[in-house]
Amino acid sequence: MKKNILAGLVGALFATAALAFDPFVVKDIRVEGIQRTEAGTVFSYLPVKVGDTLTDDVAAQAIKTLFATGFFKDVRLEIEGQVLVVVIEERPAIAAIDFVGMKAFKKEDVLKSLKDVGLAESRIFDRSLLDRAEQELKRQYLGFGHYAARVTTTVTPLERNRVGINFSIDEGEKAKIKQINIVGANAFKEADLLDLFALRTPNWLTWYTKNDQYSKQKLSGDLESLRSFYLDRGYLEFAVDSTQVSISPDKQDIYITISVNEGERYSISSVKLAGDLLLPEDELTKLVTVKPGDVYSREKMTETTKAIGERLGNEGYAFANVNAAPEIDKDKRQVAFTIFLDPGRRVHVRRINVAGNTRTRDEVIRREMRQLEGAWYEGDKINKSRTRVDNLGYFDEVTLETPAVPGVTDQVDVNVNVKEKPTGNIMVGAGFSSADKVSLSGSIQQENLFGSGKTVGIQLNTSKYYKTYAFSYTDPYYTIDGISRGFDIYHRTTNTAGLALGTYNASSMGGGVRWGLPLSEQDFVSLGLSIDATTLSLDSTSPQIWQDYVTTFGATSTTLLSSAGWMRNTIDSRLYPMKGSSYGVGGELSLPGGNVKYARLNLQHTRYIPMAKDQTLMLNAQIGEVVGYGGQPVPFTKNFYAGGIGSVRGFDSSSLGPVDPTTNGRLGGTRRITGSAEYLFPMPGMGKDKSVRLSGFVDAGQVWGYGSPVTLSDMRYSAGVGLAWSSPFGPLKFSFAKPLNAKPGDNIQHLQFTMGTAF
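The structure corresponding to this sequence follows.
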């Protein structure tokens, strides 16, 4: 005889104290109705074992426990004599999850997010989880500006108690920001304030930046930029009262309204230091950049407290607290500051940890560290370490953290976190002349070979006029002291027929070795030895001066060459320089043993002068001279040339300088002067995006032949605009220049560009 004890969860919840059966000792337990679930799984959750006494309360608890697993749709307990029968109906399992119409996201990314809310293939199907998953998917679409997106779910029963889930999605069009209004701003023009924002209305670049799509996180950042702008200009009480984001009825346009209260403008009445100064007060006072009478600036006050904190950090006080406490006089619109110093305990570095480098070896990063393990903490060495690691060029992002060591008060660790980027480059160069000539070149370079920090480069140029096959290798740490060594092998052929140059053919093969010696953090000396074998071929159209050279000295030459140079570099960034300078002196000298005798000297100076936020003036100058010795003239293949994107934009490549009167070919020269002034600034309308940089420039330059006097009246000048873009396809640089004093016979080239891609 079977007797139904309790059926389903409802029976368990509403069971009374009255017994539905007489208690008995369970002699056996049997499970019925399972399809996928193992009987052992049911037994593991069942709070009743063989030999236990089954009562009404125990039975109700058993049903509650089995329901709580989420595996079962229905649970019943039945008895046959002294045998307990557990009859269950399983919930279906999810066999597959599919998406139709989804284009904005990758399927694997969405599946991962749905798994986080409990919905995934092979898991038990739960209608409530499906509802949550649907809401999560809608939330993701809202986060990406698809406010009109519709999501419809379909559950299809399958064999073996399984279901398939299908999400049918109508993404609709992305909503764009139609208008941004700032209410209550009177001290500054609204257009100037909106330029601070990353969010903006659509323009010609927002297809790439996506800044015309609303994002709560971006809006928060923009509000902080707005707040900083006011606080840096004396508006101590500035506040954002409210923000309102609304969407049009068709869910295509977004309107953002920001209400602000500017408050009054404050000036500084006094600044004083207090607390444990530790260092002489005069030394600390020099670090204070705000003075009585100045308009209050949060930026300058932050710079002051940061500078004092860093100075204490250089003495080993890594956790020094420097805080500026204001005393506001609203009647006079003045604020007095007291800067409190609390140096804390002096600490040393226990360990340096490196993370995030999946390709680059630890040693490549560690050898750039100037802070040493076991030494006193020094803030300036921490900063130098970060700069040196960043200047490797292998990483998109480099951060250094100095957390305290748990359990002690006088130790810190230095955690170096890097985000790697592609370090290989394929570069392509091209130019268009007024005669519709096109020149192409290319190179392949890997700056971090197998994560070792070594550089390998292959240069290929197979244009009609120049063919180059070159291989280079550099080990930046040939010795543990940072002495570098490199090798170069090349084969070049030149055929200038059809170019602005004088006509000649040349075939060169050679190679060499070079060393680099660091003298300091900014100073670097290079030395090199090489050998070159060149064969020249001229014809009747070649300049007579070159024909005379080959007749006198022969068409074949071997050169043993030594080189030396010095470079000092304090530029703050390789990718986006804003300040600093570089100086360079380089020279070449042919050695006895070859049949070519010449000496060459180059001087170079580049300086970046910050002019405003995100704007800088770049000044560049180069001077070069080459002379022959031992009774020999300078080989014409060693002449200097100017003109083109690398020197004087607006003029055809290598077109400046002496001209052969018979053939009108460019001869090059033994002396060269080039210079440029370029004002660099962000693309208007791009906000904080630094991927695009514009410039206005003026170039100057000329080359002079042997014996010709260097006169500035011979200089050529040009002016134009340039654009540098870190595009999804790689770095692109464009320039459009117009010569300012072109002379008859000059070759003009207005548009020039280079492009490349990273791998």
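The chain is about 15% helix and 45% strand.
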